[in-house]
Structures are given as structure tokens and as C-alpha cells.
């Protein structure tokens, strides 16, 4: 029933599509029109502004950032 009332907002604002078996960490932000594929982990504090394919690990640090701190 709620989906029928809010269906107009999806076209105007966009939508967030989260597939099966997805873990989203605390304080993560997912922006509109993003899709998170199945079997994906989004680390805590991550900003998701694009779609993510399945079987992925997304974190705030990139590989080059983590190697520089070692």
C-alpha cells in the first residue's frame, strides 16, 4: 500500500536498488540512482555515488591510499 502512494517519487527523485546478500556498514551514505549488486560489502563510512556490480568490497580507502600508509 505504501509503495502505491510513493511510486511518483521514484520517477522524480530516483531510486536506490540494493540486491540480495548486501552488507552496508554504519554511517555509509548511498546517493540516488545507485544500484548495489548482490554479494557486496560496503564498509563503514563509505559514500556510494555510482552503481556497484556484484561480488565487490567497497571502502573509503583506495588501494594506493592504504599502501602509502604502510
Sum up the structure in keywords.
two-stranded parallel ribbon, 7 strands, 70 residues, three-stranded parallel sheet, single chain, 26% strand, 2 helices, alpha/beta
Task: List the SSEs and their pairings.
Layout: H1 2-13, E1 16-18, E2 22-24, E3 29-30, E4 34-36, E5 40-42, E6 47-48, E7 57-58, H2 63-68
Parallel strand pairs: 1-4, 2-5, 3-6, 5-7
Q: What can you tell me about this protein's structure?
A:
By secondary structure, this protein is of the alpha/beta class. It has 2 helices and 7 strands. The chain has helices at residues 2-13, 63-68, and strands spanning 16-18, 22-24, 29-30, 34-36, 40-42, 47-48, 57-58. The longest helix is centred in the N-terminal third of the chain and has 12 residues, at 2-13. Mean pLDDT is 78; it is low at 63-70.
Assess the beta-strand content as a share of residues.
25-35%
What do the pLDDT scores average to?
78
Work out the number of β strands: 7
Name the strands of the widest sheet in spatial order. 2-5-7
Total DSSP helices: 2
Instruction: Tell me the Rg in angstroms.
Output: 15 Å
Q: Structural class of the secondary structure composition?
A: alpha/beta
Distance between the termini: 52 Å
Described by the principal axes of the CA atoms, the overall outline is globular
Element pattern in H and E = HEEEEEEEH
Biggest beta sheet attributes:
3 strands, parallel
Give a quick rundown of the structure.
By secondary structure, this protein is an alpha/beta fold.
